[in-house]
Structure formats: C-alpha cells, structure tokens
Design goal:
The complex is a heterodimer of chains A (254) and B (268).
Chain A: E1 9-10, E2 15-18, E3 22-23, E4 27-30, E5 33-36, E6 40-45, E7 48-53, E8 65-73, E9 77-81, E10 88-91, H1 92-96, H2 103-106, E11 112-120, E12 126-129, E13 136-137, E14 142-145, H3 151-155, H4 160-169, E15 172-175, E16 180-184, H5 187-203, H6 209-221
Parallel strand pairs in A: 3-7, 10-12
Antiparallel strand pairs in A: 1-6, 2-5, 4-5, 6-7, 8-9, 8-11, 9-10, 11-12, 11-13, 14-16, 15-16
Helix pairs in contact in A: 4-6, 5-6
Chain B: H1 8-19, E1 35-39, E2 47-53, E3 56-67, E4 78-85, H2 100-115, E5 125-127, E6 131-143, H3 148-162, E7 164-171, E8 174-184, E9 191-199, E10 202-205, H4 209-214, E11 217-224, E12 229-235, H5 242-260
Parallel strand pairs in B: 4-6
Antiparallel strand pairs in B: 1-2, 2-3, 3-6, 5-6, 7-8, 9-10, 9-11, 11-12
Helix pairs in contact in B: 2-3
The chains are: A alpha+beta (254), B alpha+beta (268).
C-alpha cells in the first residue's frame, strides 16, 4: 500500500507507505509503516521511497566540487568555509607540491576558491584539493547562496537550465555542490542571473520551471518571448542526484 | 564575538554596485526596506511593539515599576533600556554575557529616547526624592538582518506610545496604585533614528546585513519630529568627514519625516 504520490510534498510524520516498500533517505520506519522525517518532496524509485528535503545543509561528499572561502591560514594549510556545518582544509602541499612557500602569497583570507572534495573522514574532516580542470581562485563576479538540494534543479537535465542562463546572460556561471553559485559577467547581467537563480531556488519544487525561467529571462532582458510549442515538461526531473554539474574551464589557477 | 569573514568577491561586488548608484536589493540610497510595526503584542507588558525592517525583527516591551529616584535627580522618573541579542536571531550571536553590539544597541536607543525627552520624566515623579515610576524598555532581537538601531528606536518609540501605566496616588505618604485606572505615558516628543552605512564612498540608508558586513563606516542619527538632533553614533573602522556628516543629517531630516508615518497616530 502506498499513501502518497511521487513528488508530493510531505511533512515530518506523514505516513508514506507500508512494509512492501523500502525506506530510503529522509524516512523512518515505525510499526511497519514508512514515515517522512523531513519537509520535502517524495521520490519513488521502484520500491524505494525517499524524501528530498526542501531545505538542507551541505554534507560534504568525496568527489563533489564546491565553492569555498578562506577563513584562516595555518602553518601548512588553509581553512575554508564551505557553506556547511563542517569546515574544509586545503593542505599547502596540494598547491605548492614539495616547495616551501608563504601560504598567504598564494591565497589570502577572504579569497573564494573552486575546489574538489578529496576526502571526508569518519569525523567529517573535509580535505579539499585544487587538482582538476577549472579549479582555482575566482576573481570578480558575485556569489549567490542557494540551498544545496536545489543544485540539481538549477543545473537541469544535462545542464539545460544552467546553460540557458549562461547563454542568455552571457555570464560565466559556476555551481558548487554546496549551494554556492559564482556568476561573472556584465554587472547588469550578473543581477539578472542572480534574480533568476533566486527564483529557481524558490520554485524548484514546482513543475514547468524551465519555461518560467525562460520567460523570466526574456522579460528581464527585455526580449520578446518566442512562441514555442515544445512538449510540455511533464517528465521533468525534480531532484536527481545523478546530475553532475558542468565545470567551467576558464578559471585560472593563481 | 565572532568575526565573520566576508569573501572579497562580495565586498567588491557590493562596492561596485553602490558606485554605480545601485544596491543589491534594488533600493535607492534613501529607501528603507519594508517596515512593519504592530503595537500591543505582549499582553503581560504595559506597552509593547514588534518592528520589522525587511527581515530584521525586534520585539520591544515597556514595563513600569515604582522605585527610588537617583539622588541627583530626586523629582525625575527613570527610563532604562536593555537589549538582548539571542542566538536564535543570527549565527553570530552567542549566549552568555552581553557583547559589544548588544551594549551599544541599548545605549544608543536609550540615548535617543532620553535625550530627545520622549517621555516627560518629571511627570513620572510620585513622591519627590522617594518614589518615582521607572520605565524599563527591553529590546528582544528576534531576527537580525542589519540595521538593528533604527528598528530598536522605532520599536521603543511605539512601545512607549502604546504603554498604559496604572495611576499612582499619594495617600498619607503611601503610594496607592489603582490598577483599574490606566493612563498613557506623558509623551512629550517623538524621535526616530536613521542609520547610514558608508560603502564605496557613498552613504546609504538602512544597511542590510550584507551591507553592514562590508561597510567602511556607519553613522546613526537620532532626530526629533521638529528636525533637531538628539543622538548620534558612529561605527566602523573608517573615518567620516564633515561634509558626509552634514549631508547625512540633512537626509535624516527628510527620511525621519517619512518614518514618523509608521508610528501610531492616536497620541494627543
């Protein structure tokens, strides 16, 4: 027996299904019934029921790419705020190799970097790295903070949403898995992108979002809204973990 | 007190915005965020108000108590202000003894209320040298999104105007309180405060949290309804020059006039 539909909004304690289903993330079992433990949207995959929270904090995961800001310089590493309950560290050896150099000559407190989570240990010590395409320090641009669960929605299917924003605003956009978004372009375009991204965050749980985003973009840019007769986006993915973001290769290291 | 590190990128982008005459939330330099004011929200307090300026939210309560006057002012009542920055309001607020910001907020609010002569304190005297009304203003910060001072002063003003204290009479040298008979506080003046943040060489009114974090300097000016200055407070690392201060005073005059409209009008 299942009591809810896919993508339905639930609150903690809502009974979702009984024992023939599997309990996934954001749910718990009580008296053979699966209940929600969060405010969020139900996701049903085969027989597994999970709840995707509407709001969340970023929990670091190995392999994620994140945007972090330097909060402290220590003897042989930088401390970074990665918009998470856990702070990250970037070892100096990762930047300089075996060379010995002054840490603050490379990155200083207040700098914003694009990094990869190299390792998360059992006490949630987050080790970060800069090895990879496009990773490094950001210059100029603006930062926008969104809730991490909305990141896949902002990127869209195969980057459709983010590419639309990039194309229309001519801005560079980099999305960190931790919900930090960096946008750089013409200042007025940055503002447009910021508004659109905030709108996506607000309405991420609704369907037909891509169309509304397109309309909003055109409206803000003062363009005509083209009459399009494309298939209605009934099959749009609400939040899917598989969607990896596009990396932007134009950020220089140092 | 935790010092939040603000990314260089945000600092730069906010500075650039101001230099282009814009702000991140599309306000003009003289615009406040949406202001919401409600009075009589706490039934246990004689006077209360809840203010919201944008997402900043403060509850203000006014409680009267009979006490002894200070020996140097035997015929004058007492007005005292306290504030509390509870951890719920912001990740930067820690529990424990009041920090610098909390003390500053209470003192600036107190100064603005007292120096303006908002309440006619002489009328709060019951027996000279022995018994006077003491009014305690409590500022309870519920949500912090910048510009606490203006919100606190606006809320305090509204709470004082809302306050109804029981009538106190003197019978055979004893103070008798008649809880049935409530009178409004003797409000003599109205005063409000206007805070400017200096960012990118410009003064912008009602700084949001983000703007407060990147500002170079801040100046708060308290002003009575007739346009005279009753309080002033400067904050931040950088200096302000004379022209900037004079300009700020001039703008305060116009802005406080608009702010006054938010206060309840029922007072005589």
């Amino acid at each position: 027996m299942i009591f809810i539909e896919d993508k339905q909004m639930v609150i903690p304690g809502d009974v979702l299904a009984d024992k023939e289903y599997q309990s996934g993330r954001g749910t718990f079992k009580e008296d053979d019934k699966i209940c929600s433990s969060l405010v969020g949207l139900v996701a049903i995959r085969d027989k597994k029921i999970s709840v995707i929270p509407l709001q969340s904090k970023y929990i670091p995961k190995r392999g994620d790419v994140v945007i972090g800001e330097i909060t402290d310089i220590r003897f042989s590493m930088w401390n970074l705020d990665i918009n998470s309950p856990y702070s990250g560290i970037l070892p100096a050896s990762d930047v300089f190799g075996k060379e010995k150099r002054d840490l603050n000559k490379a990155f200083n407190v207040g700098d914003v970097l694009f990094l990869r989570v190299v390792d998360v240990d059992e006490v949630k010590k987050v080790k970060l790295g800069l090895k990879g395409r496009g990773l490094g320090k950001f210059r100029d641009g603006i930062l926008i903070y969104i809730t991490p669960t909305k990141v896949p929605r902002l990127i869209g299917k195969k980057g459709s949403m983010i590419n639309m924003i990039k194309d229309e605003t001519k801005c560079e956009v980099v999305v960190g898995q931790n919900g930090v978004v960096w946008v750089k372009g013409d200042p007025s375009m940055e503002r447009v992108a910021e508004k659109v991204i905030n709108m996506i965050e607000e309405q991420a749980h609704t369907s037909g979002l891509t169309d509304r985003v397109r309309n909003m973009l055109f409206e803000l840019l003062g363009k005509e809204i083209p009459e399009k007769e494309e298939k209605p986006e009934a099959t749009e993915e609400a939040t899917d973990e598989e969607e990896e973001e596009e990396e932007n290769g134009e950020n220089l290291i140092q | 007190m935790g010092v939040t590190i603000i990314p260089e990128i945000i600092r730069e982008s906010l500075n650039n915005l101001v230099k282009n005459g814009e702000r991140s939330d599309d306000r003009s330099f003289d615009d406040y965020r949406d202001i919401y004011l409600e009075t009589g929200v706490i039934s246990k307090a004689e006077g209360s108000a809840r203010v919201k300026i944008g997402k900043t939210q403060i509850m203000v309560g006014a409680k009267p108590q009979i006490g002894e006057p200070f020996s140097d002012t035997p015929n004058v009542g007492v007005l005292m202000t306290n504030s509390e920055l509870i951890p719920m309001a912001s990740p930067d607020f820690e529990p424990g003894p009041p920090d610098e910001r909390s003390v500053e907020l209470a003192r600036v609010t107190d100064r603005c209320m007292r120096e303006a002569g908002v309440v006619d304190l002489e009328k709060l005297c019951i027996i000279e040298g022995k018994k006077v009304w003491m009014i305690f203003l409590d500022l309870h910060i519920i949500d912090y999104d910048g510009n606490l001072m203006d919100a606190a002063v606006l809320g305090s003003m509204a709470a004082l105007m809302d306050a109804k204290i029981p009538e106190a009479k003197v019978e055979d040298d004893e103070v008798v309180i008649d809880p049935e008979k409530k009178v409004s506080l003797p409000i003599k003046e109205k005063a409000l405060m206007c805070t400017f943040a200096k960012i990118g060489g410009e003064l912008i009114v009602d700084p949001s949290l983000e703007e407060e974090q990147v500002m170079d300097a801040r100046i708060s000016i308290g002003m009575r309804a007739d346009g005279s200055i009753c309080a002033m407070q400067k904050g931040g690392m950088q200096p302000l020059n004379k022209d900037e201060i004079l300009k700020a005073v001039e703008r305060t005059g116009e802005i406080t006039k608009k702010l006054m409209e938010h206060l309840p009008q029922n007072n005589q």
